[in-house]
Design brief:
With 360 residues, the chain is of the alpha/beta class. It contains twelve helices and eleven strands. An eight-stranded parallel β-barrel has the order 1-2-3-4-7-8-9-11, surrounded by eight helices. A two-stranded antiparallel sheet has the order 5-6. The longest helix has 19 residues. The two termini are 19 Å apart.
Length: 360
């Protein structure tokens, strides 16, 4: 029997540091007090800052909810705010927004992570999701106190998710593995009976795909990866495990009313990056004519290099190409987050009304 189509689901990426008017600036929200514009000499202001990081993050969450974006991803960032704490704040300050918190399995025991999340799920009525970063850069991992390498990372992540789900769903849960042991654990009221956080995983290695087949609700690809091959391989693995996994894409975007406006903004940001030593002099590169992906977002925004830039219709067409490959979850990264979240919610997402109406 054919699998029914799914409506596209959109999330925005929440900045855990910086996010000024220009994407490379980090002065907004008082992350860098030294970056604040000085007041005239005749003006005095005893306040520590015009706003706190929490105020800015709350604005991002409100923008996503008001603009009817489905959710927000707070990525794991070793140099930024703690994603689980940010997620808790966003959930508290919203009524409908789904929030996915990024962290790595070495952050805590799976029992503690599950209990922490159970409380958030209860307070937020089931709107919390998990994004596990399993295969960290070795230097980043060691700086986090995590010295596991290679396949052991995935073996630990397997046990982490197994134990977390076990104590979540079963009373008297017992487990003995290489990395974790639990004896007669499991949650009781009020932490029992709640929906387990929707699990987001990523990666294209055999170990990553095998882990997703057994545990992921959503497997996130990045722009430029062979999504068609990944979907095919993971679909077979998940079917063999008696499961079905949804597919997602993390992609930076820059969308405007028309092509001229979009590329004028690209050139402005490229020139700014050159002035600050982030980019090479000259004109920005052209998009890939086969995929429509533009390879300069790492220069102008510090995100992954490949993304979509152009008119709303052009960006929507690029997203639809991934819809045709089975991707249904799109995590969009656009800076500055408050302004661009409103822009995407009000101008880009309505272009997918037909896809949503066809499913429902």
């Amino acid at each position: 029997m054919a699998v029914p189509p799914e409506a596209p689901d959109f999330l925005v990426t929440v900045p855990t540091r910086g996010d000024g008017r220009d994407p490379r600036r980090q002065g907004r929200g008082d992350w860098r007090p030294d970056a604040r514009r000085p007041l005239p000499s005749f003006v005095t202001d005893p306040r520590a800052g015009a706003s706190r990081p929490s105020d800015h993050l709350a604005q991002v969450g409100r923008a996503a909810e008001i603009a009817a974006v489905g959710g927000a991803l707070v990525p794991f960032d070793p140099e930024g705010e703690e994603a689980l704490v940010v997620a808790a704040g966003l959930l508290r300050q919203s009524r409908h927004l789904r929030v996915v918190a990024g962290f790595h399995p070495g952050v805590a025991t799976p029992v503690y992570a599950a209990k922490f999340s159970a409380s958030l799920q209860r307070f937020a009525e089931g709107r919390l999701g998990w994004r596990l970063d399993v295969d960290l850069d070795p230097a980043v991992a060691r700086a986090q106190g995590d010295f596991l390498t290679g396949a052991d990372r995935y073996a630990r992540a397997e046990e982490f998710l197994t134990v977390a789900k076990g104590v979540w769903h079963e009373e008297g849960y017992t487990y003995e593995g290489r990395f974790y042991q639990v004896l007669a654990g499991g949650f009781q009221s009020p932490n029992s009976g709640l929906p387990f956080p929707r699990v987001h995983l990523s990666g294209t290695t055999p170990e990553a795909l095998a882990l997703s087949a057994r545990h992921a609700d959503v497997h996130l690809f990045t722009a430029g990866e062979d999504v068609a091959a990944g979907v095919a391989a993971l679909s077979d693995l998940a079917a063999a495990a008696g499961r079905r996994v949804a597919y997602g894409l993390r992609v930076p975007v820059l969308a405007r009313e028309d092509e001229d406006e979009a590329w004028a903004e690209v050139r402005r940001l490229w020139a700014l990056a050159v002035l600050t030593g982030q980019g090479a002099p000259g004109e920005p590169p052209a998009p890939d004519p086969r995929t429509g992906l533009w390879p300069g977002f790492d220069v102008i925004a510090g995100t992954g290099p490949l993304g979509f830039a152009g008119s709303y219709e052009t960006v929507a067409a690029g997203i639809r190409a991934y819809l045709d490959q089975g991707v249904t979850t799109f995590v969009l990264d656009a800076r500055p987050a408050v302004e661009e979240t409103y822009r995407l919610g009000e101008r880009l997402l309505p272009l997918f009304a037909k896809e949503i109406e066809r499913v429902h």
